[in-house]
Amino acid sequence: MVQDNSKDLESFIYPRSRYYGQFQPENIVFNANLQEFSQKVGYISCLETSGKLSPEEAYNQIRALWKQLKHSKKELSIGKNQNI
Question: Exposed e or buried b for every residue in 12-46, given b needs 16+ CB within 10 A?
Fold first, then answer.
């Protein structure tokens, strides 16, 4: 019997922390996006430190990730006063 270890590998490479904030769907989605941003910035930083990426390429990639995160925040209306 062959086991599928892809789920274990994925959780090892892309670990997720539990969300403890206010339970709203948009907060949970943004938290997942924020964790993904953090992971990718860490990988890019390591690649730049080891000489696999130039500082400019690392900056450009992180800047693109930042723009995606900002867009996510805007689309999810995070940080805006919402009257419930």
Answer: eeeeeeeeeeeeeeeeeebbebeebbeebbeebee
